[in-house]
Amino acid sequence: MASLMYAQQCIHCGRSAFVDNYYKTGAKYIKCYRCGYSYSKKVTKTDSFEVKEFLGYGVYNLVKKTGHGEFTFIQSPITDQLKEEFYLELLKDDVDKENCYLVSYESGSFYVLFGTPTENFYLTFDQYKEKMEEKYGVDNGNEWFIAIEH
Ligand SMILES: [Zn+2]
After folding, report:
1. CA–CA gap between residue 125 and residue 34 (Å, rounded)
2. For residue 138, what pLDDT is reported?
3. Ligand 1 centroid vs 31 CA: distance in angstroms?
4. What stretches of the chain adopt beta strand conformation (E)?
5. Ligand 1 mean position to 57 CA, how many Å?
6. What's the CA-to-centroid distance between 46 and ligand 1, angstroms?
7. Which of 141, 142, 143, 149 has a CA 20 to 30 Å removed from the CA of 66?
8. Using an 8 Å Cβ cutoff, are 13 and 105 in contact?
9. 62 φ, ψ to 5°?
10. How far is the centre of ligand 1, averaged over its atoms, from the C-alpha of 51 (Å)?
11. What's the pLDDT score for residue 89?
């Protein structure tokens, strides 16, 4: 199925969120790899949609030495128990610790609890947009199209 993928400003944290827009059916998915915000609009029947939205409380990027990764959008406040579960997982031998990170998002602020998020992680949406436009150029008539980069 045809979809357009592009970045837009996250309505929750203001950084860059990624959109997967199935323009033919009206289905749409938004995920923010910075704060964990997620939105989905699924087609259930013709002209009928199911909308789900979760505010982000942070993100957890777990990468195994095999290169296989698991990305978690945290949808409830991070408790001490959850932190402990993440830390225990990070200690395992098959985990590529250098590429893992855990960030919490609380009351409008980001807190890096473990690891080093990507460079793009820290950019405001405008900075991100500028970087993508410098890198890939601006497609006249499609200025809204901003590339996706984690
Ligand atoms: Zn966000």
Report:
1. 11
2. 87
3. 8
4. 4-9, 16-22, 27-31, 38-45, 48-54, 58-63, 69-73, 101-106, 109-115
5. 9
6. 30
7. 149
8. yes
9. -110, 125
10. 18
11. 94
Question: pLDDT averaged over consecutive 10-residue blocks of the chain (150 residues)?
Answer: 91 97 94 98 89 97 95 96 94 95 96 96 97 90 88
CA of 133 to the centre of ligand 1 (A): 20
Q: Which two tokens stand for residue 143?
A: 């200025």
The reported pTM is 0.92
| Confidence (pLDDT) at 110 | 98
Using the mean position of ligand 1's atoms as its centre, give its distance from the Cα of residue 120 in Å: 13
Ligand 1 centroid – CA 80 distance (Å): 22
